[in-house]
Specification:
The protein is α/β, with parallel strands linked by helices. The protein folds into 2 domains: about 170 residues, 3-Layer(aba) Sandwich (D-Maltodextrin-Binding Protein, domain 2); about 220 residues, Periplasmic binding protein-like II (D-Maltodextrin-Binding Protein, domain 2), CATH 3.40.190. The chain has 18 helices and 10 strands. The chain is globular and about 65 Å long. It starts with a helix and ends in a 5-residue tail after the last helix.
Length: about 425
Amino acid sequence: MRTFTFGLTRIASFLSLALFLLSCNKDDDNRTELVFASWRIDDVDEMNRINEIYTSKHPDITIRFDSYDPMEYEGVITDQLSKQKGADIVFLWSYDKGEALYDAGYLVDLTDIIPNRSSYAASALNAWTTDEGVTYGTPSVGVTHGVYYLKSFFAKYNIQEPSTWDEFIAACEKIYAGGETAIAQGAADGWSLSRIVFGGLGPNFYGGEPARQALMAGTAKVTDANFIEAFNAVNSLKKYMPADFKTLGYEDARQVFMDEDAAMYIGGSWEISVLEEAGLTSAKIGWFAPPVKNAGDKVQYCFHVDAGIGVNKDSKHPEEAIEYLKWLCGTEYAGALMTELPGFFSYTPGNLTLSNALAQEMFNTASTSDLTVRLMFEKLNSKTPGGDALLNDALEGMLKGTYTPATAAAWLQEQLESYYN
């Protein structure tokens, strides 16, 4: 009898343990996984840390941050959404590319969902709002463009931060004359030329926002003298790039700068954390705004509306996705984002502070400049190929010698004509 009792006790204990383990597995299985898709392949660790803030307060939620190559992102996300699959939450390019996903029926109308929507800057809302007033993406972050430099090079050659184009070229000449590389840039990835190099330097030559508006309206052409001047300015920098610049892609060129083999790098604000991880903190590098054409000119500063956030209309977890989106619209997320990823500037209304010196300098520049956004993203990017891709090809062809600045502009204008017909 005692043996039988002992056996029952062991069986009961085993069953209790099994039920406990099953219960644990059930809890895990019942946790809702939200998938957040982005083109930010450099930011996975940082975004995971940010998302832990949310999941620590929502233990029934897990968040998987999926990142894709920026040039593949649009195609991947469109394919997934068209098959009623894909991420619950998606990063959205501004203007035409993001709106195309809404027009296709893939995104939730967020007009009455975004908290404090009326408090957002109109210029930010406009980037993810249709002409009919439907907001399909919450404005998340903006980014800027300028020139990073190694303080050791500037000290070696007794160079001060240039503010005009002539001063910038003089600095390049000094370094070039010393047998060293002035600018770490490449021509193998056209997108970095159009969005970063031309996007940063070009507005001071073609005339910033008024010229962009005129191009959209069809009252200006990229073959006009002011745009040709911008093409010429970018083309003139070939002399100061690495000898193998034609074969250098975006990350290759940045690596030249991070290896301290070039004095300057024309880059985006979002690259601060990547540079810092490579040891290039503000103790070693500085930054200056795109140099103006003439002394006394006001900087035409590309403060681009970079990323909005939308919700997949076919999400299997719509309530959880909307709840998470509302958190992404709040100051807790915005503060964490700007701390983890300095150089991403949140559009979230509220009192937010910057802790990174370089990011603060970039942000401060906006207050003394005329602001614009990337040339081809609005109204000229809705067809295939879009104006952004066409500008990529024109600039890449120019730097590789296929086009002159004038013929690059002429080819681009010819391709854009369909937007005006």
